[in-house]
Design brief:
Layout (H helix, E strand, L loop, with lengths): L1 H18 L23 E5 L2 E7 L13 E10 L15 E7 L6 E4 L2 E6 L7 E10 L11 E4 L8 E6 L4 E6 L7 E11 L18 E4 L8 E10 L5 E3 L6 E3 L6
Parallel strand pairs: 1-14
Antiparallel strand pairs: 1-2, 2-6, 3-4, 3-7, 5-6, 7-8, 9-10, 10-12, 11-13, 13-14, 13-15
Keywords: Lipoprotein
Protein name: Lipoprotein
Length: 256
């Protein structure tokens, strides 16, 4: 009898403590809380004959902790059908458009904290919708991002550009034919050092309405390449850029 109590009582005591929370380490973390948080700023804009899809990488896990193991993204696209036939949630609605690995950004460009994918496989007057998921190094995927859609229109024709150098500014002159769809909203100016390519973002914050632009910010002794894109404003408020103009070079001339 005594032997039985010695053997059984400690076991019962341990079970009691376990039931009461003995050795508790904190709340259990759901596995889905460890995946990347969904992307919320997916966007698409038309530039010439392609749609540029862009997004920012998440910095948090679904549960709120700092994300440490982001491996890439999977971008999906679907064709938007007439309302009587359209189905966003149907299993075969979306197809994989691009699989992006952070260690090798094939077909994707990074600009600051934004990732850019240029989609050329398009048809005019067709509406395309995109969504994206983040992928961890273990292969787990986030929930779907926000959806973004754009209808492909006929872009405005690119302007013709000339550049004239002076001691105080590089003066750009450009002219373009009015857009076939929408109305002309202005022009975007792109500038980069000669031989180093042009940036992804324009020099101006908003489209320039005039046909002349004076760039007074170049460094003396540096030659710059310039290109201009026409910007059309569509009835729904969206804008469409033309393809780039010809490239013209200019620099600040030293005063005599």
């Amino acid at each position: 009898m005594t032997l039985t109590r010695i053997t059984v009582l400690p076991l019962l005591f341990c079970l009691f403590l376990a039931a009461a929370g003995c050795g508790k380490r904190g709340a259990l973390i759901r596995p889905e809380a460890l995946v990347p948080a969904p992307i919320t700023d997916l966007a698409a804009t038309q530039r010439g004959n392609f749609l540029q899809v862009s997004w920012s990488a998440p910095t948090k896990e679904e549960g709120g902790a700092r994300l440490k193991d982001l491996a890439g993204f999977v971008l999906f696209r679907r064709v938007v059908l007439p309302s009587s036939q359209d189905c966003d949630t149907c299993p075969e609605a979306y197809t994989e458009r691009a699989r992006v690995g952070l260690d090798y950004l094939k077909d994707v460009t990074r600009a600051g904290n934004r990732y850019l994918f240029d989609d050329y496989d398009l048809k005019a007057d067709q509406t395309y919708q995109y969504k994206i998921r983040s992928v961890s190094t273990e292969g787990t995927e986030s929930r779907d991002s926000n959806r973004t859609r754009r209808r492909v229109v006929v872009p405005p024709l690119p302007p013709v550009l000339e550049a004239a150098s002076s001691p105080s500014a590089v003066v750009l002159s450009f002219v373009a034919i009015p857009p076939e769809q929408g109305k002309l909203a202005g022009y975007n100016i792109y500038r980069g050092e000669a031989g180093k390519g042009l940036p992804l973002s324009p020099l101006n914050a908003t489209p320039v309405s005039a046909n002349v632009y004076e760039d007074k910010t170049p460094q003396i002794g540096v030659t710059y390449s310039y290109s201009v894109r026409s910007v059309a404003l569509l009835p729904g408020g969206e804008t469409v850029e033309s393809a780039p103009s010809n490239v013209a070079e200019g620099s600040l001339q030293e005063r005599d």
